[in-house]
Structures are given as C-alpha cells and as structure tokens.
UniProtKB/TrEMBL annotation:
Topology with respect to the bilayer: Multi-pass membrane protein
Transmembrane portions of the chain: 21-41, 47-65, 72-92, 104-131, 231-250
Protein's UniProt name: Cobalt ECF transporter T component CbiQ
Organism: Chroogloeocystis siderophila 5.2 s.c.1
One Pfam assignment: CbiQ
Main location: membrane
InterPro entries recorded: ABC/ECF_trnsptr_transmembrane, ECF_CbiQ, ECF_transporter_component
GO (cellular component) term, any one: ATP-binding cassette (ABC) transporter complex
Keyword Repressor: no
NCBIfam families: ECF_T_CbiQ (TIGR02454)
Length: 257
C-alpha cells in the first residue's frame, strides 16, 4: 500500500525489532495509562515519554504530521469551543467573548493526551506490517472473524481511495469542475458516490467468492504463529508496563492528595 501505515514498517529500529505481541500489549498499556491522566503536572512527563518512543522508532516527523492533518480539524474545533464555553472563571474578555480558565485547562489536557495517544498508536501500527499486527492480535485472542474483517477493511479503504482518485481524474478530464455549488454539480457528485458504492460492493462480492474458492472458512487446524520472543522483548514489555503503571499510580496519588 502506497500511502498506508505500512510505509515505514520495514525500517531498522529497536521498536521495529520488538516482538509484535509484546509491543502490542506494552503500547496499549501506555495508551490506556495516558487516557487515565487528568492532572496537568503529568502532561510534560507524558509528552517526554512519547517523544522518546517516537525517536527510538526512527519514524520520520513527516509521517506523524501527515497523519495529524485530519485529526487536526477535530483539535481546531475543540480549540475554538472549549476556552470560550466551559467554566465560570473569566481570565480575559472582549465584548461577548470570554476566555475561561476551566476551558483553557481542559483544552491543554485534551490536546496533549490526544497527541500523545495518537503518536503512540502510530508507533504501534507504523513499525510493523499491518498483517503482522493482525496476526499478533489473533494470537492474543482476537476472534478470527474480527481479524479478517479488520484486515479487509484496511485493505479496501486504500482501494476505495484509489478508485475515488481515478474517477475524479476522469471527471476533470471531461471538463467537470467541482468548485461551484450548483444543482448540476451536486447531482454529479451524488452519482459519483453512488457509482463508487456499487463498484465497491461488486468488488467485495468478487473477492469473497474468490476467497471461498480458495478454501476460506474451511481451515480446521490453526496455523502455528511464527513469533519468537527474546529476553529483550520481555524487558522492553516490563519497562513500558512499569512506566504506564507509574502514570496510573501518580494520577491516583495526586487525585487523592
């Protein structure tokens, strides 16, 4: 896949060499620990831990920035709404606009946690082929049906994007310009969406029939997984879990203090 998470899955780094099951458990523990944090004082250590893991993974900064483009719209909406709509303590006011302390604190908390969790998620799925990550999930107990559905969804999101790009190019070559809001343009765009859905459905049917012909659903013996765990994998797992547990304990201690 040209533009998927697998783009940098074959780099050489300690995170790339980490056994997939240990990496999955460790980084998911870190993600849940980050989601548990509510104290502002824990945000700088959380950002430092995230930066350390990202630098060790050797993933390019451009890879992260590109994946932040669409979530950035969500963050921008929060940045506009929260400081002016949440809380009662006004710290700055201009006319009807009032900047509120509680909203500003909530914005910092949500923004930092969101970036840290998204970055750890990119490290988790960007440092191994997606198929390997799915196999690791399956070996840890994910049902086969869910694993197959996840893999096919990921595969056909890419295919869906390529079909859309090809159809938009064909429309532009025939003189269609979508920069004007008109009834004709809306009709053409609706036809494009309908055609894309019908083609995707027909393609999924063909793929499913091909899978059935190749024996999908009739395999009774589970294939042996090829993962091999070393001592370094266990050490990295324990270190990461200790870090995650440290954030949880610190959060509980600060909350009860």
């Amino acid at each position: 896949m040209k533009h998927g998470l697998d783009t940098y899955a074959y780099l050489k780094s300690p995170i790339h060499r980490w056994e997939p099951r240990c990496k999955l458990v460790a980084l998911l523990a870190l993600i849940f620990a980050f989601a548990f944090v509510q104290q502002l004082i824990l945000l700088p250590p959380m950002a430092i831990v995230t930066l350390v893991y990202y630098s060790v993974s050797r993933l390019p900064v451009a890879f992260l920035l590109k994946r932040l483009r669409y979530p950035g719209f969500f963050l921008a909406a929060i940045a506009i709404l929260l400081p002016f709509s949440v809380g009662n303590t006004v710290i700055w006011q201009l006319g009807f606009l009032a900047l509120r302390q509680e909203g500003l604190v909530a914005l910092i908390l949500v923004f930092t946690r969101f970036l840290c969790i998204l970055t750890i998620g990119l490290i988790l799925f960007g440092t191994a082929p997606f198929l390997t990550s799915i196999k690791a999930m399956r070996s840890l107990g994910l049902p086969s049906v869910l694993a197959d559905m996840t893999l096919l969804s990921y595969r056909y999101i890419e295919q869906f994007g390529e079909d859309l790009t090809r159809m938009q190019t064909a429309m532009r070559l025939r003189g269609f310009r979508a920069n004007k809001l008109s009834q004709r343009n809306l009709t053409v765009l609706a036809s494009l969406a309908g055609s894309l859905l019908v083609r995707s459905y027909e393609q999924s049917q063909q793929v499913y029939q091909a899978m059935i012909l190749r024996g999908y659903g009739y395999v009774t013996q589970r294939r042996r997984q090829q993962f091999k765990t070393h001592a370094s994998d266990w050490i990295a797992l324990m270190v990461t879990c200790v870090v995650a547990l440290g954030f949880v304990v610190a959060e509980m201690s600060l909350t009860n203090a």
